[in-house]
Amino acid sequence: MIIHDLLAGIGTGLAGGLTAGLLGVSPGGGLVVFSVLLLGAGQHVAQGISLVAQVPPTSLTGIRRYWQSGNRTPLRWIALLTFGFVAGGAAGALAANHVVESTLRWTYVAYLVVLDAMLILRGGRDQAKHDDKGTARDTSWAALLIVGLLAGLSSGFLGIGGGLATVVGLSAVLGMPQHQAQMASLVMSLIPTTIPSAWIYWSEGSLASWPVLAGVIVGLLAGTDLGARAANRIDRARLRSAMIVFISLMAVYMIFKAL
């Protein structure tokens, strides 16, 4: 039983890590879906797995790959995003534990549809905000704080890492280059911003067994590295398209589970 749980966790973590590294997002969005799909977990438990698994620095391997390819993120951006994220995450987690599973699933579907629509509608409109080297110009502190707050709310309420919301907010709304937005998201996931919301899920008993959690963390480390290697060989337009496809597939599956 322990070996089975460990292997199932590794498979789930590997799938979540591959998508995280490839799309430069925290693995939470994929982990919730893959925990439901591969582990058969209920929505609250899937969200608890996602948040706890993101506490260790599993994104470090992916960050190294992005860094080696010349992608950098100002520390001021990370600080503002993180401040908003922590506040939003705790509020979202407190609210989630008072909501039934069917409502959480439909909210998750709506969240994915909105992100997908933003990527599609804002695709190609960010060129004016880039300089000749393809680097986004400086962004206001208020905009970064709001992106962090909204990403944190989605993280705590839906049990995800908030990386999808961070990347979409930075790239589609604030006009940052795709690779730079993905680097910022991965650096944020290196900071244990999910600890407050993870603790709330833990205290409510929404958690899987230790072998499953250990397997997920091991899989995340390997998968994020492999995904980041692939991402740095793909241009910005194709990465945006890949993210749209990934979000759409997750939305379709969660609609099926919610029905």
From TrEMBL:
It is found in: Cell membrane; Membrane. The chain crosses the membrane at residues 75-96, 103-121, 141-174, 186-202, 208-227, 239-256. InterPro entries: TM_pro_TauE-like (IPR002781). The keyword Flavoprotein does not apply. Keywords: Cell membrane, Membrane, Transmembrane, Transmembrane helix. The keyword Ribonucleoprotein does not apply. It is a multi-pass membrane protein. Pfam families: TauE. One of its GO terms (cellular component) is plasma membrane. Belongs to the 4-toluene sulfonate uptake permease (TSUP) (TC 2.A.102) family. This is Probable membrane transporter protein. It comes from Bradyrhizobium pachyrhizi.
